[in-house]
Amino acid sequence: MKSDSSVPPIDPPSLAERIRLEMDSFTPSEKRAAHMLLSHYPFAGLDTVAEFASRAGISAPSVLRFVTRLGFGGFPEFQRHLREELEAQLLSPLAKASPSDRSHGAPALAAFAESVIGNLRATVENIAPAEFDAVVELLSDQRRPVHFTGGRFTGALARYAESHLRIVRSHVDYIEGQPALWRDRMIEIGRKDVIVAFDIRRYQEDVTALCETAARQGATVVLLTDPWLSPIARVARHVLPAHIVAPSNWDSSAGLLLITEALVAAVTKRLWETAKPRMEAVERLRNEKP
Amino acid sequence: MKSDSSVPPIDPPSLAERIRLEMDSFTPSEKRAAHMLLSHYPFAGLDTVAEFASRAGISAPSVLRFVTRLGFGGFPEFQRHLREELEAQLLSPLAKASPSDRSHGAPALAAFAESVIGNLRATVENIAPAEFDAVVELLSDQRRPVHFTGGRFTGALARYAESHLRIVRSHVDYIEGQPALWRDRMIEIGRKDVIVAFDIRRYQEDVTALCETAARQGATVVLLTDPWLSPIARVARHVLPAHIVAPSNWDSSAGLLLITEALVAAVTKRLWETAKPRMEAVERLRNEKP
DNA sequence: GCTTGTTTGGAATTTTTGGTACAGCTTTTG
DNA sequence: CAAAAGCTGTACCAAAAATTCCAAACAAGC
Fold this sequence. Notes:
- By secondary structure, chain A is of the alpha/beta class.
- The first copy, chain A, is about 50% helix and about 10% strand.
- Chain A contains 12 helices and 5 strands.
- In chain A, strands 2-1-3-4-5 form a 5-stranded parallel sheet.
């Protein structure tokens, strides 16, 4: 889920900050807990209650009272908060930089671009070479029909992929997401077929259904998704996750596009012997028209 | 080459690194686990076994087997390692981008990514802020109908833009490039209308024709193109060029996507007052369906 | 010095979590 | 095509963790 509630992402005041402010109102043992936590923030809080208590030199119940006092429902909830805070901080090192220190380009554009570039780097880092290569191999097998599909936003990317790959090789098509549009086509799908699905959060049930049906019939499913993994991952043979978080109310698909283009480039190169004449033929046909 | 001889601070080989290397030798469900972990490293591993298993789409025992295979005595030990690694990394700001890490990801993918990133930077540099802002302003005017269009490859990007913007505001649509499909619609196009065209080299005559016709009827044309400028530039009021050259037989549209997403983000923010209720309503409608 | 209210830790309790045995299934191999 | 090996999930159990309860210790007020 995305937090659509507030537009300008004002940093939530860190828990550490709150603790410092409320320090005076703590009981002696709560203070020990607080100091202990702040001295190693936030890692000190990631252990067990017993460990925390022992390090702070107090008892477990005191630790519990401490976190309750901070407004958490329990120790696990407290830990979850720490993790999320840590993750948010680590993933957006850019947010720290002053927002108006960029000179060139539209400021909004520049900031957006930096964020997207971060996504691309992170995406590349997290993709296993073997996985990428395996997908290239799969898409380069001309005996296997390839079908692209995607959700309401990602469908456009699927189309983009399809429009390129269909020129490189044959048996490439695009399947619309709605079940009514693919139900009858499923009879054609079998062991040899490859489904390449694009699906990011707000995962679409119809796309999932398509992939599950195809997988049940023996098709090989390749999934391009976000790091949280679409439910399709459960039936997918290969998963390529891309980072998608951007300073926007929408997610960014740049990482998915990157993977897509890299795949197309690799397959084109791999099949160059047969792709070249094909591409030339397509070009010739296009020029004949008028 | 740099002289690294003096200091041999061999980074403790991150667990992530080891996982990437051993990826090939994993069983299918272990790969799932590995992927899941890498895509969110290391936070994905900080939850409970059950949570981890569920997110990766595998069973809890498989997760246990996975961590055992990595050489840990148990899940808690595995988590402790992750925490320590994270802490170490966070405390040394140098570790940010360890150069020995660069080689990761599929080599082809990594090289491609660097090239794309270069394109994005160049694209941002070459866009006049005023031009960008003017387009945002134009697209934020709800009284002006907006029509997206594009060529055989870029059409997908136009669709992508349309699918987002149509949720933010009304009077947004997509026009297919072939003249037969838009000829009759042109009668509707007038002074108030805005055409946003995507067109990169191997410029398509039909898209050019569409824009020329629309411009002749008084419509405002916005063009997203490559640095060599599509012929549409002659009739366009605003031109946003993106760098597209990549190590591939194909051009890369990442720069166009970047501009598109930045535009959508800016317009969404600009129209937030009216966009928010719209987006919520759309969400509600989508959830009613089943 | 007694009482009252607060704070604290030990021990019991409950919930959650990690771990294991086993059976079904898939893939590989002969 | 059958047997074997390997992988994976269900069901169950043990362990450990969080949480609650209660009585002791302490401080402040009369």
